[in-house]
Amino acid sequence: MNSTAYNYQNDISIRTEGLTKRFGNFTAVDNITFHVKKGEIFGFLGANGAGKTTAIKMLCGLSKPTSGIAMVAGYDVATQAEHIKKNIGYMSQKFALYDDLKVWENMRLYAGIYGMKEKIIAYRINEILMQLGFENEKNTFVKTLPIGWKQKLAFSISIIHQPEIVFLDEPTGGVDPAARRQFWELIYATAEKGITVFVTTHYMDEAEYCNRICMLVDGKIVALDSPKKLKDTFSAQNIDKVFRLLARNTNRT
Amino acid sequence: MIQKKYSPFLSFVRKEFFHIFRDRWTSIILLIMPILMIILFGFAITTEVKNAKIAIFDPSQDAATHAIVDKLSTSEYFTIETYVYSQNEMDNLFRKRNIGLIVVFSEHFYENMMHGGDAKIQLIADGSDPNYAYTLTQYASALLGSYQQENISHNFNPPFQIETTIKMLYNPTLKGAYNTVPGVLGMVLMLICAMMTSISIAREKEFGNMEVLLVSPLKPITIILSKTVPYIVLSLINFTSIMLLAVFALKVPIVGNILLIALISLIFIFLSLALGLLISTIVKTQIVAMLISGVVLMFPVILLSGMIFPVESMGVFFQYLAKVLPANWYIAAIRKVMIQGLGISSVSKELIVLISMAVLLIAISIKKFKVRIE
Amino acid sequence: MIQVEHIEKKYAKVNALQNISLHVNKGEIFGIIGPDGSGKTTLFRILSTVLLADKGKACINGWDVVKDYRIIRNHIGYMPGRFSLYQDLSVEENLQFFASIFKTSIESNYYLIKDIYQQLEPFKKRRAGALSGGMKQKLALCCALIHKPDLLFLDEPTTGVDPVSRKELWDMLKRLKSEGVTILVSTSYMDEAARCDRIALMMKGKFLIADTPSNIVNQYNEKLWAVSSDAMAKLLIDLKNYPFIKNYYAFGDLHHITMQANSKSDIELQHDLHEYLEKLKHQELFISNIKASIEDCFMALTGGSSDTLHTTKNYE
Question: Which pLDDT belongs to residue B90?
């Protein structure tokens, strides 16, 4: 790893300081400050249009902040986007698997994209196949996999290069309840290994599985704490209620 | 609150225009490209000739003329199609028999050649296809030149002289633009009507809008008409702008009847729309629609219409293939009317072919238009 | 209003729909609840007459979906799962367009969409493509019902929509119901089931069960327990290793489990589990007998396991 990677505290994966993004006179992300610890499952919640996607784009180095600082995996998103991309994984609801490639070919492809060495690739492919119980599906075309399997595969591929942080943008949309739970088991296992998980979801029960939740309303952070503390603070039964309480104050769509 | 209430059809057409003008690239393709094409293809491109049909007018019938005719006919470039025996016959030749070049010898050719008189050869070409005409005369002149060379080396005494003159019928100054205008018209109309219609219908399918339209009370014919009307309008705009450019920028005079040109173009527009519809019934995505209309429609038009390469110099297969292309019939008809100034009776064959093709394609594409997805 | 008898549909080798029968009464909100790829979209397409079934019969208001498709199309509103708006038209233009192809005007049925359209009104000049996901769905819904259909087919109207907007969409459906509109709606969010009069749980092209939400919950025939402690992740693993465990899964801030009763009473079961978990150093233990939710029922009906290979395909 590059020497600049040591300019940050070792147990912090993401740190933002007054991070802001404006489009014309519209402030999509408004002066947000937070940090995410290494190995933490960090839930990023907000209504549609609250600025989640814009914030994630900045953190992934795809979009430059208008002002403020964001350090991801020790790199500055404004100036070291290329380093960031090597050290993060990303998976969205429209997982980017190639339907007409086999399971291992998809893995091989992404490993190649991240410039991994042949030996390590072979090892990682086997490791993932085993972890997912996909040993017999190595040569299956992805298009014939059930959606729940695809999703797990897409997730594993997003961390095939063992990034420091993985960003999951509504990863579980449209999946059956059992598959959704299996997916969260996978997230837990990943966090156990020290990979930071930054996740957005519209399933409020999933928010409960996060170590900490950050709630965004109109581009601002209105709450940031563990699910339990949030429920206590707002004396709400569950996170769904907390969300409704906070998101109701939105002025934006 | 909006108080306006549009008819389904008008409101649909309005929406199509929004699609066109809100997408920068669509507007550019539709309004700027035709103009660029006219300018681009204004430059003539040299072409090759094989077995071009020529006619001979030989009042002398002597050793020299026979030797020259022999030389021409044994070359791979020319085939002697016919002999003519009077000036009057020559006029009809180009129109009737697909002759590319007439070689006219002067009287007492051999005698004049050997005794210092003026032995003249005139090459008359059909200038309405200037690339082709130019190439034919070049090749013919070259052959005549080599005949002269050979005879000099056989120690004929000078004065030995053949004077070659070239005359272009229909297009005396041999302007490339004369050829370009009908070709570009054919291409542009095909592009706008066939390609853009198929793409815009495929787009409705691709984004899932088609399902909603099908489930609405709209009749399929309304959907088809609403999808095509904007492109008819744009085609007419382009037709007008190309004509204006041709006359004022490229200085190509429109010899024939402008209304006849417009009529032929309108028939061709409907024909192209039907082709576009037909393509849209078999494709599901915009990219496939574009590829199919590009490969199946545009390339053949560019390659086989005689714009760049003379079809006459291609193999039999391509000559037949060229006959099936609607655009070729259109371009041929426009050339006849616009540049040769011929009337409706001279393009009746082209008109009949175009109309029957249009009727057939419209019928098929309306029948094939699916009221369901899949 | 809707009668479906033994509908079957295959794509290549995949059974998208297997022997689907369904009856929806007039003025009812009927929910089809199932994950992506369960066949919801196929069913919606067949009922909205844009797709032909291989076998079976379906009637809308007595009209056959194959023969009488023209009549049906005049009476239904359909919002496909995929975003059906024109991205390059503005909010207002989209609504105007859909009103006019249904030969009506925005103002004549404005009262139907008023509550939601008022939220969109400040952005009426904005292109639909620039709206957020929730707003797009709201606009799509407005477009689907601007002609006041008797019957509304909504394929996943709340997918990708945040919980607050989802609630607003459902409130709107409720109001439509009171106007006498029959609504067939699909969703992959289990928690929306309770908002329907009746639901069908769907998986792999089959209906698992179709009934009122409360009947489905009442048919859940096992004792369901909710468990929580100060260490939820460890708790799940410890529950997994509990000798008498049958099913266990996380459920928001709780874990849900079923146990082998072995003729023990509820109190005994609870006591034994408490003791087991206390030994494993769990604190703030909470164990309680709870009523199943639709999601619990769905998991029980699918055997709690995820889809198996080669039986489903991404055909939606």
Answer: 76
